[in-house]
Specification:
Chain B: It comes from Cyprinus carpio. The complex is a heterodimer. By secondary structure, chain A is of the alpha/beta class. Chain A contains ten helices and nine strands. In chain A, strands 3-2-4-5-1-6-7-8-9 form a nine-stranded mixed beta sheet, sandwiched between helices. The radius of gyration of chain A is 36 Å and the shape is elongated. Chain B is of the alpha/beta class. Chain B contains eight helices and nine strands. Chain B has a nine-stranded mixed beta sheet with strand order 3-2-4-5-1-6-7-8-9, with helices on both faces. The longest helix of chain B has 18 residues.
Chain lengths: 294, 256
């Protein structure tokens, strides 16, 4: 499903990572895939330099890539940035995209949403995202979120807004990582899939099913168990007859067929209750439940 | 621990003392001839000077030559607190208005590392190095985690990306019983791990105190240049008078 999402695009795709495993490599793959589709990609780079996010592109793709320099000055302290974090509003972004000539099917990439959330109110941030989604100017929004830097509630809110959430985690194998993709279609159906992937130097994504790891599973156990019944002063072994008799013994609390039929058969002279009413007892032969209308 | 390219090295500890790594890096970079900007927020200059003497560098001499710029947080804070007014751009302005962020401190660092270092003898220093000991103390002074992460992002952009220098930051983590979502040293450490190239985490041995092994250090290579790694290895170490020795687990001289 990961490759489908990457190649189709559309909607709000959230890449969620943590300190254990970074999703920036995957983000690069998404950017390359969008450029290969012929779409215009606008990257709001607040956390990493352009070289890290946009390395290894050919000349035709480079023209359609617009890196808006947040990094190295995302907050405007040194007046060297073209797009600061506080300009993350739907008006500014829509204007930014409209300013590019011959824009078709624009893709907006945010690196990272964590930086934006640090400086914007979560409610306003969600409103902005929703406005961008419904605005019609942007076809796809791809955001990178560091899930371990925010409260769980906030991460939940952003995931809820997304059409596709891809969480990455490390796998046992060092070369691979695990991606859990959750996709919500317009009809409300939710699909989930877990895949192993790796990203190459030139941002090519290779996905595979769970890899077999030979040599990690111990097939043979070389443990030779010692026989505990040998070398004793008493006998713990059973002869054939003894073993057969042992298997025949009916266990006391096992409800076998024999016991069941024995209980159902009324045996004479056992278990009868004889009641002798006293002089003070008021024995009424009538059925006390007779007046019930049941 | 030679670094060939510009690195952001995060040193952290939990219930242990990783400051021996700061002393090591300080003497290492001074000996390598780099211009060092040291924000010493928790100890006095004489403390580092005394340890540096044992490691073979004279901090006083380096400071006089202009190779070392030392911000003595403890001494300078009096000046800020006793003044009636303080400018926003003062390095320790966060003491008066912690909510405002660390822009003043960043400007101090920027001016220090951008100086074309010319020593008295006309020598020019190598790529700049920023050392901070330690960053988690700012949390107790009321600065938010977000402001500290913004500050380190700017430092990394200037020192590492632009000037090809190195950065070594010490952060001390606490055992927090509360939810790790709360603002605290663990959240700060996570944010810094996201930003750094190499994370060194020092802890005591999980099995308890040992006379010959002072603790374990986890080395986490996160990134080298453009390549994203994710390699972690644990080493044991022993701190000596003149440095520390590192060895693979189980190979301490006391054991072999």
């Amino acid at each position: 499903m990961l490759l489908d999402v990457m190649q189709a695009g559309g909607g709000f795709i959230l890449l969620e990572d943590s300190v254990q495993c970074s999703a920036r490599g995957l983000l690069r793959c998404f950017i390359h895939a969008a450029l290969k589709r012929g779409e215009d990609v606008h990257v709001l780079g607040f956390e990493s330099p352009e070289t890290q996010v946009c390395a290894g592109l050919d000349s035709s793709s480079v023209q359609r890539l617009h890196f808006h320099k947040g990094f190295p000055d995302p907050l405007g302290w040194t007046c060297r940035s073209s797009f600061t974090v506080e300009r993350f509003t739907s008006q500014h972004i829509t204007q930014l995209i409209k300013d590019t000539q011959h824009a078709q099917a624009s893709v907006l990439v945010v690196d990272s949403l964590s930086m934006v959330l640090r400086h914007h109110d979560p409610v306003v941030f969600c409103q902005t995202l929703q406005e961008l989604r419904k605005g019609g100017v942007i076809k796809t929004i791809i955001g990178l979120l560091h899930s371990d830097l925010h409260q769980q509630g906030i991460v939940g809110i952003v995931c809820h807004l997304a059409d596709t959430v891809i969480s990455v985690a490390p796998a046992d194998n060092e070369r691979l990582s695990v991606a859990k993709t959750t996709r919500r279609t317009k009809s409300g159906k939710v699909m989930q899939e877990e895949e192993y992937f790796s990203v190459s130097e030139d941002a090519a994504l290779s996905v595979q099913a769970k890899p077999r790891q030979p040599g990690h599973v111990q097939r043979e156990r070389d443990v030779s168990e010692a026989d505990p019944t040998s070398n004793l002063t008493f006998n713990l072994r059973l002869s054939e007859d003894e073993r057969k008799a042992k298997e025949k013994v009916a266990l006391p609390f096992v409800f076998s067929q024999q016991k069941k039929s024995a209980l159902l058969r009324p045996t004479p002279g056992s278990g009868r209750i004889v009641y002798e009413p006293d002089a003070n007892d008021d024995v009424d032969e009538e059925d006390p439940d007779d007046d019930l209308d049941v | 621990m030679q670094t060939v390219q510009s690195d952001f090295i995060l040193v952290s500890d939990r219930r242990a003392d990783a400051s021996f790594l700061i002393h090591h890096y300080l003497s290492f970079y001074l000996r390598a001839g780099c211009k060092v900007c040291f924000l010493g927020l928790v100890q006095s200059f004489s403390h580092y000077s005394a340890v540096g003497q044992r490691l073979g560098v004279s901090l006083a001499q380096a400071r006089e030559k202009g190779q070392l710029v030392f911000l003595e947080g403890l001494k300078e804070s009096f000046g800020v607190l006793l003044q009636d007014t303080s400018q926003e751009t003062q390095p320790l302005s966060y003491l008066r208005s912690p909510g405002a962020g660390l822009e003043g401190l960043f400007r101090f660092v920027e001016s220090c590392v951008r100086q074309s270092g010319d020593g008295n003898a006309g020598e020019s220093w190598g790529p700049p190095v920023l050392l901070i000991d330690d960053l988690s103390v700012l949390l107790s002074l009321g600065v938010s985690v977000g402001a500290i992460l913004d500050f380190t992002l700017y430092c990394q952009a200037t020192v590492c990306s632009e000037l090809q220098g190195n950065m070594v930051i010490l952060v001390r983590c606490e055992e927090e019983d509360a939810d790790d979502d709360e603002e605290g040293s663990n959240l700060l450490q996570r944010g810094l791990v996201h930003q750094c190239n190499l994370a060194l985490h020092v802890e005591g041995l999980p099995t308890g105190y040992c006379r010959d092994i002072h603790g374990q250090m986890e080395v986490w290579w996160r990134q080298r240049g453009e390549t994203i790694y994710n390699q972690r290895k644990i080493f044991h170490f022993k701190v000596h008078d003149k440095g520390a020795s590192f060895f693979a687990r189980g190979t301490s001289s006391a054991v072999l």
